[in-house]
Amino acid sequence: MSSYILLTGGAGYIGSHTALCLLRAGYNVISFDNFSNSSAESLKRVEQLAGRTLLSITGDIRDQAALTAVFSQYKISAVVHFAGLKAVGESTELPLHYYDNNVSGTVTLCRVMRHFNVKKLVFSSSATVYGDAKEVPIKETSPRSATNPYGQSKLMIELILEDLVKAEPDWSIALLRYFNPVGADESGQIGEDPNGIPNNLMPFISQVAVGKRQQLSVFGNDYPTKDGTGVRDYIHVVDLANGHLKALQYLEQSKGIEAINLGTGVGYSVLDMVNAFSEVNQVAVPYQIAPRRPGDIAVCYAEPTKALTLLGWKTEKTLDDMVRDTWRWQKHNPNGYRS
Ligand code: NAD
Ligand code: UDP
Fold first, then answer.
1. Cα separation of 66 and 300, whole Å?
2. What is the DSSP letter of 138?
């Protein structure tokens, strides 16, 4: 019986790029997604790009019976757990929904994994667990805190998984702390497809460039940074997807739990991103300076050497790749997967 990697949330932005990466590396893939923030079209395109099929199962990670059915029917060797809600603002309005979906969903998933003795797990954590870090670059040992229910849900899941490994040391878990994922597969066939008005910088820039939005609001130009705008560690989603492949390979030969930053180690400001986007793609990105966005921090970038030492992974894509690939996806799919 062949074995599969189960991707929860496999149809989403990072999940679809990782599915493609794993299919190309020869793994069999099952996506388990309730499509609350994605469409099956992304997975169809992944199959076309890979020239291989995957199994797409519609289901919710809070549904223990549905997960049990999947684990009963297929031999799962490891789980990459992307499924979760991720909008910071929405999480402050709907905290119970976020804790239920993200935290309860993860507990249910782990319960089913344990029942079937599947104990290799890659979890989508986030640099948000560092709160407003005192020192950059941010190391994995930096203190953790959260300022909103979304971040709190990631932090709670990290703590739950740490307790699980203490109680049952035969688990192998990687907590991958993503910095700011951007970009798209270079085919322009799959990419980020936000619902409604984008919260994140890159999809907003590309929607301005394509004429869907009038101008970008730059949230604050009075931060203590080189040009006053916020600095982040933008990471190409294809590099990020490759980090999951490396993490799975690492879990093959290790037990316990490791938190690992996935970032480039380089910070770019909002204006760096706007300028790179318009220069590389030869397209205008009108913007205005607006007040700071509540809850934003000035600077955030990774110390990425643990990922290199432990996983043999580092980023390969450049800032030009990030803005070029984002634009190719946006231009070819002005309305995302509904185009
Ligand atoms: P996404 O919304 O595109 O993908 C998440 C997927 O999970 C979606 O396809 C959604 O339909 C599915 N999903 C949500 N709740 C589910 C449930 N209860 N059962 C089954 N499926 C469910 O988001 P993404 O950007 O691909 O993010 C993937 C993961 O990485 C998330 O956990 C997110 O919190 C985390 N993360 C994302 C970023 C980022 O900036 N994109 C940064 C750090 C961490
Ligand atoms: N940002 C901005 N305008 C926008 C969206 C974001 O100026 O419309 C800035 C934001 O203040 C931050 C950076 O871009 O400095 C990255 O924001 P994003 O929401 O993409 O990621 P975050 O790091 O906040 O998770």
1. 39
2. B
Q: State residue 267 phi and psi, 5-degree precision.
A: -105, 135
- What are the phi and psi torsion angles at 325 (to 5°)? -70, -35
Kindly name the residue from 13, 98, 150, 178 that is annotated as catalytic.
Answer: 150
Task: Please state, in angstroms and as integers, the Cα–Cα distance from residue 257 to each residue in 66, 110, 138, 165, 206, following that order.
Answer: 27, 14, 19, 7, 37
4 is catalytic: no
Q: Which residues, listed in sequence order, are joined to residue 58 by a DSSP beta bridge? A: 33
* 246 within 8 A of 319, measured Cβ to Cβ: no
Instruction: Report the C-alpha gap between 172 and 131 in whole angstroms.
Output: 26
Q: Give the single-character DSSP code of 127.
A: G
pLDDT at 339 over 90: no
- Residue whose CA is at the smallest distance from ligand 1 atom 21: 33
DSSP tag of 99: I
User: Are 223 and 229 contacting, i.e. CB atoms less than 8 angstroms apart?
Assistant: yes
Q: Whose CA is nearest to atom 20 of ligand 2?
A: 200
Cα 156 from Cα 147, distance rounded (Å): 13
Q: Tell me which residues have their CB closer than 6 angstroms to ligand 2.
A: 180, 199-201, 204, 216-219, 230, 232, 270, 293, 296
The closest of 281, 265, 292 to 127, measured between CA atoms, is 265
Residue ranges of alpha helices (H) inside 196-262 are: 201-209, 237-252
Task: Note the pLDDT tens digit of each residue in 179-215.
Answer: 999 999 999 999 999 999 999 999 999 999 999 999 9
**Is the pTM higher than 0.90?**
yes
